[in-house]
Amino acid sequence: MTQRNRDLLKQCIDEKWTPIVESCEALDDGPRNCVLCQEYLDCDNCPVATEAQDDGCDSTPYTDWTRHHMKRHEPNARHRVPGCAACLRLATAERDFLQMLLDKETT
Known about the structure:
By secondary structure, the chain is mainly α. The protein has one domain. Helices cover about 60% and strands about 0% of the residues. The protein has five helices and no strands. Helix 4 packs antiparallel against helix 5 (about 85-105). It starts with a helix and ends with a helix.
């Protein structure tokens, strides 16, 4: 993984997913607030898509996160819903998945 990808992955963890895990105010605005999606609009060379061996974030915990919101909450408001244990579990799973990718590349 390139240093640029490591930096973007860390930024995605720090600026998007850790705030979502820690606060019900932080928003998942899909690719609009994902630095990796901004960098890799077509997902080519994106470290997440490469790891998942799939297009975009398919086959990652993000799929479960979005599916949960579509079924249980307002689909267009992807924040962690107060009191929803599944939201916390799924947001944490996505953050931990991204952290695993970063750790895998730095060890």
